[in-house]
Amino acid sequence: MSAVQEMTAAVLHGKEDIRIERVPVPEPAAGEIVIKVGAALTCGTDLKVYRRGYHAKMLVPPALFGHELAGTVHAVGEDVTKFALGDRVVALNSAPCDACFYCERKQPNLCDDIIFNNGAYAEFIRIPARIVEKNTLAIADGVPFEHAALTEPLACVVRGLDECEAAIETRPGDTVAVIGAGPIGLMFMHTAQIAGYRVIAVVKRDEQIAAAKTFGAAEVVQTTQVEDAVAAVRALTPNGRGVDVAIEAVATPATWEWAVDMVRKGGVVNFFGGCAAGTKVELDTNRLHYNDIKLLASFHHTPTTARKAFALVTGGKFKCAEYITGRARLTELDSVFRKLMSRTNDIKTAILP
Ligand SMILES: [Zn+2]
Ligand SMILES: [Zn+2]
Asked: Which ligand places an atom closest to the C-alpha of 115?
């Protein structure tokens, strides 16, 4: 028997405390695979976890973390038939049970028994059997790992837009306002533009204007340059009637309220940004009711939207490369997060073990 193999991995010990450690290389149990990480991407959720030192649903420190990854299959457990050693794959960060109350009602994103997986900031990561079965996809040779790893966040965005389209009848050329130009806001802009909508981006900082345009915004409203962002957005719609779809991707109560104020009657709002616990918003009940406004708040992804996102990421139309604004070694992870905290222009950094 050989000694236990070790690998380098980032371990989150608590608030703003990442340590690069030597830990055992995971071994796959039945149904599981172990992926040699090709690229892991930084994400707003990881930044939140780094700042707070924990995540209510996803992890309790000390823990391996990071959840957007792609790589090659390094080991397979018993009974794994879908994948073989050397396959290039992207594995999502969760998978539903398909048996609970919510899964049965086609709401697998709310699965009561959902499995989350973390540990992408490492040389190797173990993928639980259920994720292997339901949310791991084979990548064609020409697709870089760092592009394929965009599948997870994009799966949430695709679901957010799908829900809007299910709520009202939309047409090509309809106006979609996206408030916020972080990675998620920029993905909404691009996804909406590819779907044929006219995108109005609502951004804060100068550098976000160029990013919004890169990802398909036809018009950009910079909040620091206008007195009233809602009026500025409305002024860009026919007769000032408001946008057909408003997506909130900042995660503050104020921008949630803006989203409602800028949508047309019969339009749809998606409160996509999850605000801090305990926060509340004030909404005009009269306007909501008599204007028949649809309010949505989409959370997470499903195996179906994961596949849609994967098709976008690998289909050639989606500007994957433009989302990867930096690359760093695993050993530099702590400084990458410190930099992200100071609000740089980085969209996503690819962490390469
Ligand atoms: Zn993420
Ligand atoms: Zn379930």
From this structure: 2
* CB-CB contact of 72 with 83 (8 Å): no
Identify the nearest ligand to the CA of 153 by its number. 1
Question: Looking at domain 157-296, does it have CATH number 3.40.50.720?
Answer: yes
From the CA of 48, which ligand is nearest? 1
Cβ atoms of 266 and 293 closer than 8 Å: yes
Is the omega angle on the peptide bond into residue 26 within 30 degrees of 0, that is, cis? no
- Minimum mean pLDDT range among 1-10, 219-228, 232-241: 1-10
- Give the predicted TM-score (pTM) of the model: 0.96
Using the mean position of ligand 2's atoms as its centre, give its distance from the Cα of residue 125 in Å.
24
Q: Which CATH number is associated with domain 6-150+318-352? A: 3.90.180.10
Residue 235 Cα to ligand 1 middle (Å): 34
* Domain boundaries of the chain, sorted by first residue: 6-150+318-352, 157-296
Q: How many residues does this entry show for the chain?
A: 353
The pLDDT tens digits of the residues spanning 190-201 come to 999 999 999 999
